[in-house]
């Protein structure tokens, strides 16, 4: 092997300037002198060819312009973990002077030499490194662990390590480092293109306390994840973004402690792949952003029933996908524990132009949802959404066989498939009355006038007043109108309303920026004013 070229150079990761790649060939090239390295670059724009030169194929690249040859002296094969750590935190030999390692001190005219100061400086460095708990050597060209047991002797207190964007070329190197960190809880090795074990014989105790692991952009497959997971007995969070994972397998006896799984930016074959991970018992958060899924279906549960899949799932992200049918949103109501959903940038959202109506439809369709696209759903907002949903689709319900008389109420299977929560909403608020449905327009229409009775329940001497107000009028503007009417500062007013349809129930109008229609106020309702 030529000078400057490691004996295990083939397959190693290298930096050349700021560019990173993998060594695919070491040797001579026809009609040239000396040794060359054939490199497949992470960024194909850096390359010149596919690994061939003058008709001879020296190595192969995934991209037709992804490779080139460089001289060994241009390649940085990286450093060991401790060297990178000391450089990163200013604890290498060049910084000795700040720890008082000069060997002579002058007292007056006498020079006194201190024997053994080098060892004192080394001890001080050890103390500094031993204090480190949360460390980052991101982008520090780490390629190997270094001398055996040196890390455990030097940095015994580390718990959280960021090793992302380095020159680690195999999972074995990660194991070599982690096995020397007894209390390792968090590990980020993202942006290292690595070789992973292909058989289950490769097991280690290095990750026995690991809780959080990031393997984004490492080219790991799901099969390799499951093989490595045998060594992650306590893992709670696993990040696998951008790994070209297309198919999943059932995780038998592994990942059973997992609470968060991030599969974003992997183009899954289809939504049915999710069924293979649906029995993870403790999974609370699933991130499926930009995974190419076009539908979600839980076939084990019928209309209005809960699925046995994903029993603990509370937070789901399906934004930036290809979901085009509302039926997939209906399916999410089957998840027994779902509380938060992110679903922006899906084709089904283009079916409704008004964003407020769109939001109301999703809220009404998923009964236990508390947060939608990072916005909290207030109780009054849920109530308004469900009442409006009940009215908007009331005519469809009647035409499909729905009826106010329970004995005659037999909506079609097609209607129940499109609106599985409708029977529940009728039980909750009562079936929509015929008067509610006549001429009923979607909530997107503005400025519909409401005839409201305004009462001051704590001031009986104040006679009730009837007013016509546009449903788009905000609570703040209503307070301004009442100030002029009652001569009371709007800031001191507290408003609520009673529905003519739901006797005895009083709903607080607690958000000054929301319009009357947000609270599903209707003509005939009574606004109560207190101060």
From TrEMBL:
<dbReference type="InterPro" id="IPR032675">
    <property type="entry name" value="LRR_dom_sf"/>
</dbReference>
<comment type="similarity">
    <text>Belongs to the TBCE family.</text>
</comment>
<dbReference type="GO" id="GO:0005856">
    <property type="term" value="C:cytoskeleton"/>
</dbReference>
<dbReference type="InterPro" id="IPR000626">
    <property type="entry name" value="Ubiquitin-like_dom"/>
</dbReference>
<keyword id="KW-0206">Cytoskeleton</keyword>
<dbReference type="InterPro" id="IPR000938">
    <property type="entry name" value="CAP-Gly_domain"/>
</dbReference>
<keyword id="KW-0963">Cytoplasm</keyword>
<comment type="subunit">
    <text>Supercomplex made of cofactors A to E. Cofactors A and D function by capturing and stabilizing tubulin in a quasi-native conformation. Cofactor E binds to the cofactor D-tubulin complex; interaction with cofactor C then causes the release of tubulin polypeptides that are committed to the native state. Cofactors B and E can form a heterodimer which binds to alpha-tubulin and enhances their ability to dissociate tubulin heterodimers. Interacts with TBCD.</text>
</comment>
<dbReference type="InterPro" id="IPR029071">
    <property type="entry name" value="Ubiquitin-like_domsf"/>
</dbReference>
<keyword id="KW-0433">Leucine-rich repeat</keyword>
<dbReference type="Pfam" id="PF14580">
    <property type="entry name" value="LRR_9"/>
</dbReference>
<dbReference type="Pfam" id="PF14560">
    <property type="entry name" value="Ubiquitin_2"/>
</dbReference>
<keyword id="KW-0007">Acetylation</keyword>
<dbReference type="GO" id="GO:0007010">
    <property type="term" value="P:cytoskeleton organization"/>
</dbReference>
<comment type="function">
    <text>Tubulin-folding protein; involved in the second step of the tubulin folding pathway and in the regulation of tubulin heterodimer dissociation. Required for correct organization of microtubule cytoskeleton and mitotic splindle, and maintenance of the neuronal microtubule network.</text>
</comment>
<feature type="domain" description="Ubiquitin-like">
    <location>
        <begin position="450"/>
        <end position="529"/>
    </location>
</feature>
<keyword id="KW-0677">Repeat</keyword>
<dbReference type="InterPro" id="IPR044079">
    <property type="entry name" value="Ubl_TBCE"/>
</dbReference>
<keyword id="KW-0597">Phosphoprotein</keyword>
<feature type="domain" description="CAP-Gly">
    <location>
        <begin position="27"/>
        <end position="71"/>
    </location>
</feature>
<protein>
    <recommendedName>
        <fullName>Tubulin-specific chaperone E</fullName>
    </recommendedName>
</protein>
<dbReference type="Pfam" id="PF01302">
    <property type="entry name" value="CAP_GLY"/>
</dbReference>
<dbReference type="InterPro" id="IPR036859">
    <property type="entry name" value="CAP-Gly_dom_sf"/>
</dbReference>
<dbReference type="InterPro" id="IPR001611">
    <property type="entry name" value="Leu-rich_rpt"/>
</dbReference>
<keyword id="KW-0143">Chaperone</keyword>
